[in-house]
Design a protein that fits this description.
The chain is of the alpha/beta class and 258 residues long. Helices cover 38% and strands 16% of the residues. It has eleven helices and seven strands. Strands 1, 2, 3, 4, 5, 6 and 7 form a seven-stranded mixed β-sheet that branches. The longest helix has 16 residues, at 241-256. The two termini are 18 Å apart. 32% of the residues are buried.
Length: 258
């Protein structure tokens, strides 16, 4: 037992994931995974810089950052996220995206690295520099898949690529008018799924929509609301897209264990 402070996992939450962490070997007694995870969670929730991490509670910020990089680069955080989705409800799947402002501190990533060709998923438009988080949530409003893009890309551009990462057979895909293109609807039906997507107002051959079922799309909006309670996600400070996505997984793990 340990005292629980703000922004930290409860005992119930920690018990759901504690056995999924590999052993960490160093030349000195390592900090426990729970302390390290809570430290990263504190950064995610507060939006503070790494150097502002409370040392008396979590130790050196450099140690925490090193552990975070290890979890990010080995795919552990994504693995935890996937494992927690073993009871997902695939009856209705909602797809959508949200745009977040990229802070000026997110600029300056080294050229030639991963995602450098696509500017670390930071796009420029009339709204400034932004990143877009694409997500699919299940019938309970829990996230199944995340993907980043520049904020200037239209939702329909990546819709099929996003859907390809989730088994949609037998499901009903719910989306707003941005996902109503023929290519997207054809992809859904070709995979033995149905869709609830309203046609645009200027569509020449509109299709019928179950507006009552369409109300289920509120689940994805509610999820974005919860996600943006994490200030490190509501505003992007990370130079690397992989780091920013890792924080999205951190938030999702916290929400899935509640």
């Amino acid at each position: 037992m340990m005292s629980i402070k703000r922004y930290e996992l409860t005992d119930v939450q920690w018990n759901q994931i504690k056995n999924l962490f590999p052993e960490y070997h160093t030349g000195r007694p390592p900090k426990s995974n729970r302390i390290m995870f809570n430290a990263v969670l504190w950064i995610a929730r507060s939006g503070a810089a790494w150097r502002d991490l409370p040392k008396e509670r979590y130790g050196s910020w450099k140690t925490v950052y090193s552990r975070f990089c290890l979890w990010r680069d080995t795919g552990l955080l994504e693995s935890l996220f996937i494992t927690l989705n073993y009871e997902a409800d695939y009856e209705n799947l909602s797809i959508d995206s949200t745009v977040v402002t990229a802070h000026q501190q997110s600029a300056g990533a080294k050229k030639g690295g991963l995602n450098s060709v696509i500017s670390q998923h930071i796009g420029k438009s009339s709204g400034g520099h932004t990143t877009k988080i694409h997500v699919i949530v299940d019938g309970l409003g829990n996230p199944l898949y995340f993907q980043l893009s520049g904020g200037n890309l239209h939702d329909s551009v990546l819709a099929i690529e996003v859907l390809q990462h989730v088994e949609i057979q037998g499901s009903n895909v719910i989306g707003d008018r941005a996902y109503g293109s023929l290519d997207i609807r054809t992809y859904v039906t070709n995979h033995d799924a149905t869709y609830t997507i309203p046609p645009k107002k200027n569509t020449k051959e509109p299709w019928t929509v179950d507006w009552w079922l369409y109300k289920e799309r509120h689940l994805v909006e509610c999820f974005f609301n919860k996600l943006k309670h994490f200030r490190h996600i509501a505003t992007r400070y990370d130079k690397l897209a992989t780091s920013y996505l890792a924080f999205v997984y951190i938030a999702a793990i916290f929400l899935l264990t509640k």
